[in-house]
Amino acid sequence: MTRKRILLLGAGGHGKAIADLLLSVGGFEPVGFLDVMPKASQVLGLPVLGDESLLAALAKQGIALAHASVGNNEQRLAAAGRLRAAGFALPSLTHPAALIGHGARLGDGAAILARAVIGPEAEIGPLALINTGAIVEHDCVVKEAAHIGPGAVLAGGVRVGAGALIGAGAVVRPGLVIGDGAVIGAGAAVVENIAAGTLAMGVPARAI
């Protein structure tokens, strides 16, 4: 099987998680990272090639795919825009240890990490990040560049707005709406809708 070469933009902690996904899935050949301020010359044995000034040259070498491997939602969205402008396609990425239900849809550039569960007919938007062990149940909608943290649980029919963050271990009751850019603290129990741009924490979660 021919492996598809793919470039990673961002060599931090989330970059390491995406590299692990790619090294596990088998269908891709990660060529390395670009990062403006790398902490090391290699990540999981993959080279840090330089900064974004290399994008055009790498595209000319026939590398057609890339991933914005940046944990921060706004920065990931901006990085993806620069990759698209340079001519790269952004495939969705799914760890082989994740479970994807029938009829689920994954947008371009989305990442589903190890042991995450995506329920039937859930919709994961472009550049959304479903982190390790998160559960996104049936009929949920996770909009563009949102992040569902490690071990978080969205019960059935939850809608998470663009750029929102559901912290590690948080739980959201069925059918609720989390607005664009909202942040749900780690371990929170969300029992009512959360407005756009709101920080909510606690059990039950309350706006701060």
Q: What features would you describe in this structure?
A:
The chain has 208 residues and is of the alpha/beta class. It is 15% helix and 30% strand. An 8-stranded mixed beta sheet has the order 6-9-12-15-18-21-23-24, covered by helices on one side. It has a 6-stranded parallel beta sheet with strand order 7-10-13-16-19-22, with no helix packed on it. It is built from 3 helices and 24 strands.
Q: What's the gyration radius in Å? A: 17 Å
Order of secondary-structure elements:
EHEEEHEHEEEEEEEEEEEEEEEEEEE
Which residues form runs of ≥5 with pLDDT under 50?
A: none
Number of helices: 3
Computed structural class: alpha/beta
Helix coverage percent of residues?
10-25%
Report mean pLDDT, rounded to a whole number.
Answer: 97
Q: How much strand content do the residues show? A: 25-35%
Shape: globular
End-to-end C-alpha gap: 52 Å
Kindly list the characteristics that best describe this protein.
3 helices, single chain, 208 residues, alpha/beta, six-stranded parallel sheet
What topology does this entry show?
Layout: E1 4-9, H1 13-25, E2 28-34, E3 42-43, E4 46-50, H2 55-60, E5 65-68, H3 73-85, E6 93-94, E7 99-100, E8 105-106, E9 111-112, E10 117-118, E11 123-124, E12 129-130, E13 135-136, E14 141-142, E15 147-148, E16 153-154, E17 159-160, E18 165-166, E19 171-172, E20 177-178, E21 183-184, E22 189-190, E23 199-201, E24 206-207
Parallel strand pairs: 1-2, 1-5, 2-4, 6-9, 7-10, 8-11, 9-12, 10-13, 11-14, 12-15, 13-16, 14-17, 15-18, 16-19, 17-20, 18-21, 19-22, 21-23
Antiparallel strand pairs: 3-4, 23-24
